[in-house]
Amino acid sequence: MAGLAVSGTQVSYIGQDCREIPEHLGRDCGHFAKRLDLSFNLLRSLEGLSAFGGLEELILDNNLLGNDLVLPGLPRLHTLSLNKNQITDLECLLDHLAEVTPALEYLSLLGNVACPNELISLEKDEEDYKRYRCFVLHKLPNLKFLDARKVTRQEREEALVRGAFMKVVKPKVSSDSAAASPECHYTPLPSASRELTSHRGVLGKCHYVYYGKNSEGNRFIRDDQL
Q1: Which of 65, 77, 135, 181 suits a disulfide with 85, CB 3.0-4.6 Å?
Q2: Which stretches of the chain drop beneath a pLDDT of 50?
Q3: Do 31 and 11 contact (CB within 8 A), yes or no?
């Protein structure tokens, strides 16, 4: 099978542009594989992964997996790498992992919007990432490594106390409130002069005060006056 690499219990099917897990991959390798690497494909679904019930390590970096990601029950899985996918809903993912991967100890989500760091957005900083780690450890307290960093004792203790409050909630604007307050375009003109059919001039006074250090005596001299 082209692109397939097998070494003992390690199975790799990397960079084959597959959109789903090939059926024959599970049929031929699912019964013995403990480590499966499906990086650099075009996966949007993990249908067919149920054939790999004995997996201990699963690498899914650089795919197109989103918030609808569904893993089968993998009771032995201790390592999961989902770097550079399209996951935005962190809580949904963590709740799912807590249910189907009870032995998980190593998790990496770098390169997803759900993992706030400067690799994704320059608007994110170290504090955003610390809150993210705290929330993840609250949801998955058995993790030993998160992303590329070992979980410290201090992080674990903080997650017990504050983790539940580290969830980032984005405000939602209801359709009712949006309809109740129609969009109003700003204009600097007085209301009497905003209509296209109104051509009345509007006069005002402007008092110019100069606070600089240099003379402005020639500020309004035209070239033909020099």
Answers
A1: 65
A2: 170-175, 177-189, 202, 210-211, 219-220
A3: no
Please give the Cα distance from 135 to 128 (Å, whole number). 11
Name the 3-class secondary structure at 168: coil
Question: Would you call 225 exposed, middle or buried from its count of C-beta atoms within 10 A (0-12, 13-18, 19+)?
Answer: exposed
- Rounded to two decimals, the pTM is 0.72
| pLDDT at res. 223 | 58
| Whole-number Å distance between alpha carbons of 63 and 37 | 11
Alpha carbons 48 and 60: distance in angstroms, whole number: 14
How far are the Cα atoms of 39, 59, 110, 204 from residue 20, in angstroms, in the given order?
12, 15, 22, 69
